[in-house]
């Protein structure tokens, strides 16, 4: 998920959970293109704006700043093993999304995540859900604070010849962009609509410019790539890049419970991030190679990666585009996640504190973590995989198992065997992060 939780357009329900609505302004840039793709792939199945909007919501919720760290996270296993892992995680994500859809249809079409868990698993399930949701948002906020601080430090050095301490740059990032969350969803909506579109355009331009610089030798297998421990180490961050499940309940309602359209929205919406991540890995790993990426991972991996890509292009303008893309990826993800956290905490506290108090509760814990781990962008993103596994693997499996005992209706194919495999996969992701 990381994961821009409020991209491109979302609002909040009565308990502070994310409710997604179609990104009409985003669609307005590409209406003919979207209709053409819809017709080409699906005939008359999805020739409607609802499904196009739902597809883009799934994609926008998945694609976040975590993709910046993907090349470094998978450097030890190489390009092709990374592609295999992403395909497996994509399959797991799609399967558990259907399990959540099944649970949502059984409890009431469009019932929000919190109430859905409570109806099936009771108060204990709700507590686990809320705790995991908060842990996920706090971890993502801390990760984006460290990433944003890193890029601010690079800019201060390059433009002003000033070397900022990590503490200073972290506080600057938190106290500027962090204020956006206090202004509410209306302003975040306006900000993320344009920035998300610009981010995707920048990504496509970068891919077009960098892929021709690919060296085939950088994409070949090596014996070291078959080390299982290296594959395990890459799992958590890849997993966090495919979390769109928070939007499933409102999307089920928005698509009127039409399973054919829901499945198509999940397929196309999660397939777009898979395509973007694959192109991004090709654009970075092809020219740079795994060995150079391993060296970049030492120290401030994000800043080193941006610097290496800027140098690789040999062009000041292209270097500016690289930096712009990194900035947009961080900003759109950060404002979306922090708004989600700010609003959720406001609901939990029942409006007992004002904006200042709620802002402090929102940012103090992740700020402490970011200051303690100034170079922890990748590490903290990896930690986010633990609460995310609870939310989008363990809880959906538990709800499906329990709800099938009590009622009939739509069931995802695969039975208990598939759910057991999903549970094992979720367990491996958690273990990989803890090792």
Automatic annotation (TrEMBL):
<feature type="transmembrane region" description="Helical">
    <location>
        <begin position="51"/>
        <end position="73"/>
    </location>
</feature>
<keyword id="KW-0472">Membrane</keyword>
<feature type="transmembrane region" description="Helical">
    <location>
        <begin position="120"/>
        <end position="146"/>
    </location>
</feature>
<feature type="transmembrane region" description="Helical">
    <location>
        <begin position="231"/>
        <end position="252"/>
    </location>
</feature>
<keyword id="KW-0812">Transmembrane</keyword>
<dbReference type="Pfam" id="PF03222">
    <property type="entry name" value="Trp_Tyr_perm"/>
</dbReference>
<dbReference type="GO" id="GO:0015173">
    <property type="term" value="F:aromatic amino acid transmembrane transporter activity"/>
</dbReference>
<dbReference type="InterPro" id="IPR018227">
    <property type="entry name" value="Amino_acid_transport_2"/>
</dbReference>
<keyword id="KW-0997">Cell inner membrane</keyword>
<feature type="transmembrane region" description="Helical">
    <location>
        <begin position="195"/>
        <end position="211"/>
    </location>
</feature>
<dbReference type="InterPro" id="IPR013059">
    <property type="entry name" value="Trp_tyr_transpt"/>
</dbReference>
<feature type="transmembrane region" description="Helical">
    <location>
        <begin position="413"/>
        <end position="434"/>
    </location>
</feature>
<dbReference type="GO" id="GO:0003333">
    <property type="term" value="P:amino acid transmembrane transport"/>
</dbReference>
<keyword id="KW-0029">Amino-acid transport</keyword>
<feature type="transmembrane region" description="Helical">
    <location>
        <begin position="264"/>
        <end position="285"/>
    </location>
</feature>
<feature type="transmembrane region" description="Helical">
    <location>
        <begin position="356"/>
        <end position="373"/>
    </location>
</feature>
<dbReference type="GO" id="GO:0005886">
    <property type="term" value="C:plasma membrane"/>
</dbReference>
<keyword id="KW-1133">Transmembrane helix</keyword>
<keyword id="KW-0813">Transport</keyword>
<feature type="transmembrane region" description="Helical">
    <location>
        <begin position="79"/>
        <end position="100"/>
    </location>
</feature>
<keyword id="KW-1003">Cell membrane</keyword>
<feature type="transmembrane region" description="Helical">
    <location>
        <begin position="318"/>
        <end position="344"/>
    </location>
</feature>
<protein>
    <submittedName>
        <fullName>Amino acid permease</fullName>
    </submittedName>
</protein>
<feature type="transmembrane region" description="Helical">
    <location>
        <begin position="379"/>
        <end position="401"/>
    </location>
</feature>
<feature type="transmembrane region" description="Helical">
    <location>
        <begin position="166"/>
        <end position="188"/>
    </location>
</feature>
């Amino acid at each position: 998920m990381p994961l821009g939780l409020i991209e491109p357009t979302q609002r909040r329900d009565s308990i502070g959970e994310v409710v997604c609505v179609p990104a009409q302004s985003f669609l307005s840039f590409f209406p003919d293109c979207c209709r053409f793709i819809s017709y080409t792939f699906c005939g008359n199945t999805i020739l409607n704006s609802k499904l196009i909007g739902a597809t883009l919501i799934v994609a926008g919720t998945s694609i976040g700043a975590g993709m910046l760290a993907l090349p470094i996270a998978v450097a030890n296993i190489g390009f092709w093993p990374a592609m295999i892992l992403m395909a497996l995680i994509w399959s797991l994500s799609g399967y558990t999304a259907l399990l959540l859809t099944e649970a949502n249809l059984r409890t009431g079409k469009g019932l929000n995540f919190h109430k859905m868990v409570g109806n099936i698993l009771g108060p204990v399930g709700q507590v686990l859900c809320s705790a995991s949701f908060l842990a996920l948002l706090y971890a993502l906020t801390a990760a984006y604070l460290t990433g944003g601080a890193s890029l601010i430090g690079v800019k201060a050095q390059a433009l002003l010849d000033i070397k900022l301490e990590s503490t200073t740059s972290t506080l600057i990032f938190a106290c500027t962009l962090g204020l956006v969350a206090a202004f509410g969803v209306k302003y975040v909506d306006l900000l993320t609509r344009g920035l998300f579109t610009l981010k995707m355009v920048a990504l496509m331009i970068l891919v077009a410019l960098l892929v021709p610089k690919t060296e085939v030798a950088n994409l070949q297998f090596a014996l070291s790539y078959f080390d299982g421990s290296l594959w395990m180490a890459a799992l958590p961050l890849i997993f966090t890049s495919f979390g769109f499940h928070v939007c499933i309940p409102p999307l089920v309602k928005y698509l009127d419970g039409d399973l054919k359209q829901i499945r198509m929205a999940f397929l196309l919406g999660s397939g777009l991030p898979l395509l973007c991540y694959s192109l991004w890995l090709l654009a970075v790993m092809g020219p740079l190679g795994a060995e150079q990426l391993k060296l970049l991972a030492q120290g401030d991996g994000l800043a080193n990666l941006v610097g290496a890509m800027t140098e690789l292009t040999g062009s000041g303008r292209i270097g500016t585009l690289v930096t712009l893309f990194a900035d947009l990826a961080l900003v759109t993800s950060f404002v979306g996640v922090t708004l989600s956290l700010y609003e959720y905490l406001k609901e939990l506290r029942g409006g007992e504190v004002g904006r200042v108090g709620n802002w402090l509760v929102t940012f103090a814990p992740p700020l402490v973590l970011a200051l303690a781990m100034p170079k922890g962008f990748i590490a903290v993103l990896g930690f986010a995989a633990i609460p995310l596994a609870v939310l989008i693997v363990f809880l959906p499996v538990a709800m499906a198992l329990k709800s099938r005992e009590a009622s009939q209706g739509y069931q995802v194919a695969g039975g208990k065997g598939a759910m057991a495999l999903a549970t094992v996969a979720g367990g491996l992701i958690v273990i990989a992060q803890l090792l």
